[in-house]
DNA sequence: TATTGTTATACTCTATAACTATA
DNA sequence: TATAGTTATAGAGTATAACAATA
């Protein structure tokens, strides 16, 4: 008899994507709850967290980092911009493109988002081996790669 | 000087949740594209795939498996039911609860969804070690657990 | 001609609150 | 009283097509 994780023959990788979506939903909800004071939606958190390192990025770059399309980002950026968290500035090097600049207040919230994310990550991986985390990242990258 | 992925002290697990969301977006889109003939949304695919093993489940159970709330599922189930893919049947053991039964056609589509998922999983993990996949699952479970 | 990003548009996703039926 | 699930409602997420500006 085989256990649930070794169902069939050799290393059949069943049950990666469904748990992936489940975990994404769960972490998204927790994240929004932890940041309830800032009243941020998952997409807003995601966008801010991807700008939290202080680097200026274009809309397209943030779209790629969040895994969405520029068109999806527009309304998110509108809201963040409306709150004064960031502003769009024409890229002098390519005037079709906008560079996203965080305001000091936006930077504060972005750091908060990043900290909340790291706190969850640390809690989750505290009792796991480094090799497991490394495997996690490898599989994630592979899933991304085949999904391009 | 430290690289971006080793910012602070020891094995700080930075960069799990952001890539998680990115990979989720990417796989969701690929999945919908692969199943374009069936015209299914990500949530419909997710629900069906979680019923594809032929087991009868309640709305609440599928909600837990997909990582959403029952209220979110209602419209998804309405659409699937409207297409004749499943029907809600009162649970005789608890008449507040509905059991979800796939029709033969629903079962066909659910298997298709499951197969598409497995195909992506196999492509992604083909060149990875079993230990990496095992680590992936462990981290996923841990993230879910701390996010309850 | 091709690309960046927005606008217009159309659905889907998501959840809270209120409700019904059952436990 | 508590729980399962729906309905009503409101807003956020998602993408395609059309467009303007720039490359």
SSE blueprint:
Two copies of one chain form a homodimer.
Chain A: H1 17-34, H2 42-49, E1 57-58, H3 59-66, H4 70-82, E2 86-91, E3 94-102, H5 104-125, H6 130-146
Antiparallel strand pairs in A: 1-3, 2-3
Helix pairs in contact in A: 2-5, 3-4
Chain A binds a DNA duplex (23 and 23 nucleotides) through helix 2, helix 3, helix 4 and strand 3.
Task: Describe the protein.
Two copies of one chain form a homodimer. With 148 residues, chain A is mostly helical. Chain A has a single domain, classed as Winged helix-like DNA-binding domain superfamily/Winged helix DNA-binding domain (Arc Repressor Mutant, subunit A, Orthogonal Bundle), CATH 1.10.10.10. Helices cover 58% and strands 11% of the residues of chain A. The first copy, chain A, has six helices and three strands. In chain A, strand 2 and strand 3 form a beta hairpin. The termini of chain A are far apart. The relative contact order of chain A is 0.12. The N terminus of chain A is likely disordered. At the A-B interface, helix 1, helix 5 and helix 6 of A face helix 1, helix 5 and helix 6 of B. The first copy, chain A, binds a DNA duplex (23 and 23 nucleotides) through helix 2, helix 3, helix 4 and strand 3.
